[in-house]
Design brief:
Largest sheet: 6 strands, antiparallel
Helix content: 25-40%
Number of helices: 4
Structural class: alpha+beta
Shape: globular
Strand order of the largest sheet: 3-6-10-9-8-7
Order of helices and strands: EEHHEEEEHEEEEH
Radius of gyration: 18 Å
Strand content: 15-25%
Number of strands: 10
Distance between the termini: 66 Å
Oligomer: single chain
Length: 195
Amino acid sequence: MAAVLLLSGCSAVNEATFDPTEEVSSDRTAELNRELRSMPSLEVTLEEYRELRRRLAREIEAIAPGVRFVPKADPADRFPDDRGLCSGEWLRTDGETVYLDNWTSAVPIDDEAWPAASDLVRAASGKLGVGHESSLKSSPGNREVRFTNSQNASVELLSWKAAVISIRTPCRLADGPAVPTPPGADEGASSAGEG
């Protein structure tokens, strides 16, 4: 006896709640585009979120023994971050979002440091309006917390066999095409704090 599961179509997903979203009217899309025009550009927002990643890495390293975050992307990669379409009700807008290069540590955040590390992420995310919290995994040695907002932004901290900082910008209008990251502008927290 064989079972076949057939799925077709696709639906927009609200990244703040991970629930399917309603079909968005053209009037609502136009309203969201007007909203986007009143917000800082994607490039300005990207720099703000890169600074968030650097600060979180530095602060978590200071409280978690042995943790040293480094960029996952090849240092020669001039485009380490990935631009993409927004999701949820923002899907059909003119906006874009950026998935920043994950920063990883081969040493995970230990259980004793986890509460303080997740508090750092909670506070920093909250200051940017990214405050919808989901604890995806919470068992000794295997933890993950995600903060999101309705504009597609997310900040995640994971720790299992390694530690990971994963960040996505909110939906914003780009000033132009993607610009390469200047050499040395996005160094890991460990090397940026030395010297």
